Amino acid sequence: MRGTPADWTDAYYGDLYLESAADLMTPALTALEAGVIARLLAPAASARLLDLACGHGRHAWALAGVAAVVGVDRSRAYLARAEARGPAGGRRPRFIRADLRALPFPDGAFDGAYSWYSSLFMWSEEGNAAALAELARVVRRGGRVLVHHANPLRLARQPRAIARRVIAGGAVVEEEAEFDPTTGVERAHRRLVRPGGARLEGTAVLRYYRPEEWHGLARGAGLRLLGLTSTPDAAAGAGGMPGPEAPDLVALLERAVSDR
Question: pTM to 2 decimals?
Answer without folding.
Answer: 0.92
